[in-house]
Every structure is written in structure tokens, then in C-alpha cells.
Amino acid sequence: MAHYHDHLGRPLVAVTGIGVVTSLGVGKTDNWTALTSGRSGIHPITRFPVDHLNTRIAGTVDFLASSDKGASALTFELAEKAGREAIAESGFDTDEFGGPLFLASPPVELDWRERFSLYNASKEGSASDRLLAVARNLQTLDIFETSQFGSIAARLADEFGTRGLPITLSTACASGATAIQLGVEAIRRGECDRALSIGADGSATAEALIRFSLLSALSTQNDTPEKASKPFSKDRDGFVLAEGSAALVLESLEAALARGATILGIMRGCGEKADDFHRTRSKPDGSPAIGAVKAALADAGLGKDGIGYVNAHGTSTPENDKMEHLSLSTVFGEHIRSMPVSSNKSMIGHTLSAAGAIEAAFSLMTMRQGVIPPTINYDNPDPAIELDVVPHRKREADVSTVLSNSFGFGGQNTCLVMAREPV
């Protein structure tokens, strides 16, 4: 007889649907084929002018209808496509899901086209007077709806028929993992028997590129875009800005089995820890990241020998990769030398708000398919980071548990532990 509760007596949470969109393609089949082939989705930017910019490459999603319509429109379409794929796989109705929605998305802001449109909506007076005149009539403009932080989740809730007020969150690069954690915790508390967690980010705009460049966070290796993201390599020089989305249908294991659903994996543990050291840098001793990993393992009821593979945050920045290695080696000790630790970002770039959800989806697929995606571009290993990064080529492996790390700017750290089967 199936065990429906974990080591703390909480309902076990199963994954019954997965949806993915990245620069590698739409849908988890195309993404998985490209990812395990070691193909990169990083390419020169064509969406906006990049003259005189230090970084001219990104993992933009340029093949969707809203790719050139602004960050909010693209984020919605990315979330909608991933959500629709996940719900369809789960077997629920795609317009009557019936559970709560947790959406991780970027902070909404107006891009330059929208700002000029607002400015031109009034014709008289100084610039400030014209903007004030427009502001008084914002509710008559479509831009009022699309510029609200909760508007994307509200539209998704209508589209999918989710229950209750949708929650929108933004915890930097940990956002996608946090959205999953909120869904898991809602089911554990008995508030629902199913939840839809989505991470989506279509904000690879000129403004975002410039801001991250000013932080010296982006790679400037423009000549060979597909080789620019090189996690854990000695010559890594920054992350590559990217877009994408992933959705998971989460369900209590008991409810899923009762309706005959296919179980794609089990969410075993969630851990989080804040870092108050710096707005971008991690605390030098790595204690917040270490604490997040330990919290996830404790929540899952696992020791340091209980993880078979780590889906690394692996951004390709000098600071983050060093800190992640410190955290993993501290928690797992010598065992980390023989544990595979690979980074999807070497191929898809850093999808920011969506990253934690996308990497959780790929982690579940790793266990289900018995294949670990590689870390590509590992041509110059960093001798200070001793990890088995699964270099260059995929690896067939029997993986039953995965730790997926998400360490975000602003000190937001969230780790997820997933298992192939129930305890």
C-alpha cells in the first residue's frame, strides 16, 4: 500500500505535469532533446540595438508571437504556454484547473516604447506636465492593465480556471523555486490537493542588459555566443541574460493516485535562507547558501549521502560559482567529489525569475529519463572548484534524488529536493 505522508507526517507532494519553454524551443520534448545534446540557445541580440554595448548576446526567446511586444506580454505568453503544457499532461482541464496559482515573474516596468507612448499621449506643456496629464487618465489606457504587478497572474487565473486569488512573487533568481515551494507548502498544510506553480521571465530588455552590465555581472564574450556561459570554468566572466518559463502541476500523492495520474516525481524538501550581506554578492563564508542546502535536506529527511545529483545554480559568474562550490563542499564533504553537479545555464543562460522552475523541471526529467544533462564549455577547469560537472556530454545515470539550487541577488536562497519515487 502506498505511503501518502512524509517523515514529518505531512502529505507527500507529487508532480503530475511539466511544461517548459526556453531559447531551445517550446515544450519539454524539444527542450530535453536540445539540452541533452549539449546545444546552446545563446545567440546575438536582434530585438533591440546593441551598438556600443559591452554585452551583445542573450538567450532571448524570439520565436513567440509576443517576442517583440514588451516584457509583460512575453512573460504572459511564456507562462501560458508552459502552464498549458503542464496542465494538459496532468490530465486536468486546461480551463478549469481548480487549484491555486503561484507565479514567479519579474518586477513589471514600462519599456522605452511604452514610456514614449505615454509621453506622446499628451501634447501640451512641459514634459512633467504632460506626464501628469497622462497619469490622471491611466485607467483609460491599456497600459494601466499591463503594467500592474499582478496582472499577468490574474490573466493566467482566468485562462486556466485556478482557485482563489493568484499569488505573484519576485525573489530575484530564486523566484521560480519559491513559487514551487509555496505550492508544496499549501498542499502540505491541507489547503488544497493541487496547485499550479509557474516561473516565467521575458524581461531581456535593453534596460535589463544595461543594468546587469553596470553591475559587471554579464559575460562580454560576444564573438562566440554559444560558448559565453561556462559555469565552473576558470575563464568564466559573467552570466548570460535569458528568457524562459516552466510550470509544474503539484498534487498530493494520495489524490493523484486516486485519480490514476502518472507520477513524474516527488517534491521531498524545500529550504530557504536569507543573506543580508550585500545586494549582489554572497556572504564570504557561504553560510546562507549552506543553510539553505541543509534546510532542504532536513525538510526532505535526508542526510548528505541521500542526494544523487545536484542541478547547480551555476551562473558562470566568478563570485557565485565559487560560493556554490563552497556551500556544496561544506555540506557534502568528500562525497561531493563523486557526485555529479551540472549547470543547465551553460546552454540556456540565466532565465532570472524562471530559472528555479526551469531547473526543477529539468531535474525531474533527469530522474525520469535516467540522463544527466552536461555542463558545456568546460574547456578550462577552475582548479579551485573540484566538482564533477558532467563536462561536454550527457551521462546516463540512475538518479533517484536531486538537489536543485537557486541563489538569487538580494540574498534570496531557495533549494529544492526532488525524488523519482515516493519514500
Automatic annotation (TrEMBL):
Belongs to the thiolase-like superfamily. Beta-ketoacyl-ACP synthases family. Keywords: Transferase. Pathway: Lipid metabolism; fatty acid biosynthesis. InterPro entries: Beta-ketoacyl_synthase, Ketoacyl_synth_AS, Ketoacyl_synth_C, Ketoacyl_synth_N, PKS_Beta-ketoAc_synthase_dom, Thiolase-like. SMART domains: PKS_KS (SM00825). PROSITE patterns: KS3_1, KS3_2. It comes from the Bacteria. GO terms for molecular function: 3-oxoacyl-[acyl-carrier-protein] synthase activity. This is Beta-ketoacyl-ACP synthase. Residues 10-420 form the Ketosynthase family 3 (KS3) domain. GO terms for cellular component: cytosol. GO terms for biological process: fatty acid biosynthetic process.
